[in-house]
Amino acid sequence: MPIPTEVVGSLPRPQYLQKAYADYDAGTITRDDLLAAQDKAAEASVTNMIRTGEALVTDGEQRASSFATYSILDSLGGSGLASNLVADGQYFAIFDDGHHRQLPRLTKGPLKYQTYAYENFKKSMPYAEGHGMKQAVIAPSMLYLLYPLEGEVEGYTREEFVEDLVNECEKDIRGCFEAGAKRVSIDFTEGRLSLKRDSRNKWTGSELLQTFVDLNNKVLSKFSPFERTNIGIHTCPGGDCDSVHSHDVPYSALLPSLFAINAGYFLIQCSSETDKPSVYQSIGQHIRKEDRSNGVVKQVAFIGVTNPLSPDVETADEICEQLVEAAKYIPKDQLGATDDCGFSPFSIDVKPKHQGPDFAREVAFRKIANRVEGARLAGESLGV
Asked: Is 40 exposed, middle or buried (0-12, 13-18, 19+ CB in 10 A)?
């Protein structure tokens, strides 16, 4: 079987769509105007990704305010915020370049999604004209941060919140499969960030990693082993405005816990690591093989072989070399290729290292095409 490839999910929104989001928040265009711009960008994203040769494509999350907030916000400016959420919540992350992203705060129960990923998926699926598609969803562990870190919401216990959160996340994933998605990946960038202990961002020093792992496993327990083979987990040190939030956290601190999540595959940032062999070795040590007696499915590690934060396009030969090196440590039947991160997880992202989002989109499609070809070359080299 050839080395499989998979995109994480997002693409930079074209400049006209980013302007539409801003104009919508400013009240100068209608919601129908915004939806029309989203449709145009989503169709172009699907069409161009199919041309890369990627087996499963996405619409680049063009309709999502961000990977983290699509379920609770229509735009990063706050449009569509539910009445039981307010905008003064915790920082999700403070990035290395100094900018930050903030989550809303829950003020009363129950937690309910405003938009499900499968709703956006259904709108974009016709553009694929039968080509396979996947969908990314947000992890319950990210939305766990909507609840105050200390104390409880009046009339809505943390236990009640977690039950609602798990149910909503299950509904989101199951709805994607029912709509026709072949695979669903769960964005879990907060996993690595939870180990950073950033004094400016209190939750990162609150020992939440095990809580996060348990939350994701509660959701995954709702699915059969067969279903879980097509549910993945994505981890990275962030990727917004060409900056990161937790690249300084060593993978050795995360990977043992990461592979304790009962998912079938993992999309793991690797190409921008300075010591890739040590990461490959750790993956090989901790990735699990099938254990039917305990309901454990064989896990596959899709290693990042392109860096979405850099405008430099990796060649197919360079990608092949990374995969052949990784195969020294990771079993070949548990190895795949991906990108380090989504190419633009937030809807407003000027992509400063790329001189703007339109050029960044072109670069993204070239990187994906080279990844597909590089994986083919590596498969030939490895005899798989």
From this structure: middle
